[in-house]
Amino acid sequence: MKPIIFALPGNETLTDSLAQSVDAEIGQAEIRSFPDGETYIRVASDVKNRRCILVCSLDRPDSKLLPLYFLSQTIKNLGGRCTCLVAPYLAYMRQDKQFKPGEGVTSKYFAALVSQFARSLITVDPHLHRHPSLAEIYSVPTEIVHAAAHISNWIKSNIDQPVLIGPDSESEQWVAEVARDAGAPFIILEKTRRGDRDVEVSVPQVETYKDHTPVLVDDIISTARTMIETVGHLERAGMKAPVCIGVHAVFAGDAYNELQDAGTKQIVTCNTIPHPSNQIGLEKLYVDFIQNTNFY
Amino acid sequence: MKPIIFALPGNETLTDSLAQSVDAEIGQAEIRSFPDGETYIRVASDVKNRRCILVCSLDRPDSKLLPLYFLSQTIKNLGGRCTCLVAPYLAYMRQDKQFKPGEGVTSKYFAALVSQFARSLITVDPHLHRHPSLAEIYSVPTEIVHAAAHISNWIKSNIDQPVLIGPDSESEQWVAEVARDAGAPFIILEKTRRGDRDVEVSVPQVETYKDHTPVLVDDIISTARTMIETVGHLERAGMKAPVCIGVHAVFAGDAYNELQDAGTKQIVTCNTIPHPSNQIGLEKLYVDFIQNTNFY
């Protein structure tokens, strides 16, 4: 029998296109707020013994967790066979240790909670730092997929004479990979520190790439500080207005407008968090997970 | 050793006054949002082997649950002896059965979650309907306290010639109790149903109480529809502008202004949910719970 895919509020577009890609049924659920701010939930589809997939990107996670938990619990109570979670963006990956005494290690706490109501989990390029893998914090099976190949393809098809830009040496590995797959050159900005607040940034080989379109790529664009700074360095070096690409369009506060105003040619993101800048669809990355959730 | 009382954001006023009433230490915790909407948490007090009380009213619960869970988990990890919860207002008491097929019974799901991170729970007049007690849904010890005596005292001290008003026969028991303790008379409005949408409401003994101040009392003022309607009935009967008293100041949307504009003399609430209308302090109701949390 076909799996049923349920969209948590805000994830309807991705869910519709996933259901088409994998020939799944779209789950009918009513999820709304009462006037007093509590969540009402009703599952109208017959889920008994069916494989159920929940689609919920976990940016701005605090208000999303209860509706997700309630939907999962309701499906279980109605006899659904699993509640596997497609969470294209995974929250609470940053606080993965006690940096100061007394801090809560929220990455662990959050994972423990989500592991209670997701039978398995798939996500795109999570911000893994000190945790070597999701298995260290999640007690359910998890799968990580990568956006890099889709980004390279988008660059190949949409940008004439691209040159990829790494804002610092840390980004080199990731930028080099995307550049290679896109068949494009790349350069890494060079920083010379003269003092605590005096850092000079130079763009190497700037003459060679004067007619190229610079392309900045990062995993999460949140406050966009690094990207805005990098755009400034390129402008001062006399390069063309760059295209900025992010996997996850978090865009905290007014970051999107600020990045636009900084002198970018275009801002492009993957569709892991619904946003007007979404142009790179990652549906194909979830197909195996959805079709093979029998195992979980 | 003194217990430590921690305020979740928004509960600082009640927490400060509780700490004075019970001679407790106020817990130092930093609970704030990152620009991307995630919650940061750090406990600065030394909680090791100490009794820890968390104060968190649970109106608008969806965005409050993760911070509460994170604080509880952090305290546990730092060796705190208990994380007992003072939740003057308890959420998710309404959906206590499947009214329609497929509905989630959120009262159970919510209770199961809170029971994981509160070692015990105290609340004021929860909206118990079909669940005979909190013990049916909460797996930790719970205690219910009642605001009625505090409301009666407030009426006695603040209103000259009060007459309590019950909007319908269902409210009679509760209104009669508050009236008796306040040493005041009460009347119950009489409804005569003439058709589906044609209900006539009359105010009995209206002549006797023309010079009294009508006092309406309800447990939760959410959309305030019933109270606004009742205020209208009293006005049409030629009574004075009433005082409206609620235990829980939920005030969904613009309900507070609407109730003011409906022709009330004054709106007064208990301090279970922080609101400008709070005038009746319930601190005394929690003292035993806080002082005797050794048991939990």
TrEMBL record, chains A, B:
Record family assignment: Belongs to the ribose-phosphate pyrophosphokinase family.
Protein name stated in the entry: ribose-phosphate diphosphokinase
Domain Phosphoribosyltransferase residue range list: 144-274
GO biological process, one term: purine nucleotide biosynthetic process
Catalytic activity: D-ribose 5-phosphate + ATP = 5-phospho-alpha-D-ribose 1-diphosphate + AMP + H(+)
Ribose-phosphate pyrophosphokinase N-terminal domain ranges (all copies): 5-115
A GO-annotated cellular component: cytoplasm
This enzyme's EC code(s): 2.7.6.1
GO MF annotation, one: ATP binding
Superkingdom of origin: Bacteria
Keywords, ordered alphabetically: ATP-binding, Kinase, Nucleotide biosynthesis, Nucleotide-binding, Transferase
Pfam families: Pribosyltran, Pribosyltran_N
